[in-house]
């Protein structure tokens, strides 16, 4: 097959490309330039998509003996990922930019271009497994990225390759060293690559502006303080609330809900964070098989953690999920991903964007 290897400059994508070469595929490496000003993105272990990363990707391609190109996707990334991120926070929702990047950049824009150029598949360094078109969790549970890939369609997955998904991170680093790849010990990237200093609140405020509102006690209705915009908060947040006095019972408060229209941020005790039902739309079935009736499954609401056995069904076009154990900190805008319970919870059934939640009975 002709394979386009997306090379981020990290160890995972370098080994993925190497494995594609070793499997006998005709491989071409490509690095995606996602910023018009790459010097503003973080370097080292704090981010990705930097000039340093592009150089690292090119060196890895040279060692593998494959052609290498840099493709400018900065405008598309800005429109589909950064602007979406800002708009979602302004609307009081909590988006996942990595999920959006996979969906709209790597497996839409990049894949479309690859197919137009005659490639058969796009290869990435994601930790997930594809078996007969079925998306599964990776062998390394701590690094699993199936959650941020669960919004891909069957057609997109048909042209995807995840060569490192059956290995642990330690094994990938060891293999990179054996292959002479300089990125073998390169630290993993963390946080949001397009926020240079890691200050998400300041980044959002620079684009949205200040929109003052009130912090309100959800139980008493008392006004506890003021803030400069709901974009500075997310459901489940505890720190940085700006409340100048403790609760009457001395317990910490958490963000329970956001009202972007009037700027109200409601806070309350941890037990009020429990969610007994999730309603989600924009449902995607990566394996092409919608749920039939009520299905027992495992629901996940965050990239790492936030899982519970659950039942799920499609009702009036929306996905309704009822966790067996009340999940906390479930925010509109996040994705809920379902895994098949009878397969050890590692087969992805579907994905949807959380629209609203219903509090768990107390």
UniProtKB/TrEMBL annotation:
Annotated region described as Interaction with tRNA, given as residue ranges: 143-145
Domain tRNA-specific 2-thiouridylase MnmA-like central residues, every copy: 201-268
Compartment(s) where it occurs, according to its Swiss-Prot or TrEMBL record: Cytoplasm
Site (Interaction with tRNA): 126, 334
Listed InterPro entries: MnmA-like, MnmA-like_C, MnmA-like_central, MnmA-like_central_sf, Rossmann-like_a/b/a_fold
tRNA-specific 2-thiouridylase MnmA-like C-terminal domain boundaries: 277-354
Active site: 101 (nucleophile), 193 (cysteine persulfide intermediate)
Matches recorded under CDD domains: MnmA_TRMU-like
Residues given in the record as ATP binding sites: 6-13, 32, 125
GO molecular function: tRNA-uridine 2-sulfurtransferase activity
Catalytic activity entry: S-sulfanyl-L-cysteinyl-[protein] + uridine(34) in tRNA + AH2 + ATP = 2-thiouridine(34) in tRNA + L-cysteinyl-[protein] + A + AMP + diphosphate + H(+)
Main location: cytoplasm
EC number: 2.8.1.13
Keywords: ATP-binding, Cytoplasm, Disulfide bond, Nucleotide-binding, RNA-binding, Transferase, tRNA processing, tRNA-binding
Family indicated by similarity: Belongs to the MnmA/TRMU family.
Role this protein plays: Catalyzes the 2-thiolation of uridine at the wobble position (U34) of tRNA, leading to the formation of s(2)U34.
PANTHER family according to UniProt: MITOCHONDRIAL TRNA-SPECIFIC 2-THIOURIDYLASE 1, TRNA 5-METHYLAMINOMETHYL-2-THIOURIDYLATE -METHYLTRANSFERASE
Name of the featured protein: tRNA-specific 2-thiouridylase MnmA
Organism field: Actinokineospora guangxiensis
Source lineage: Bacteria, Bacillati, Actinomycetota, Actinomycetes, Pseudonocardiales
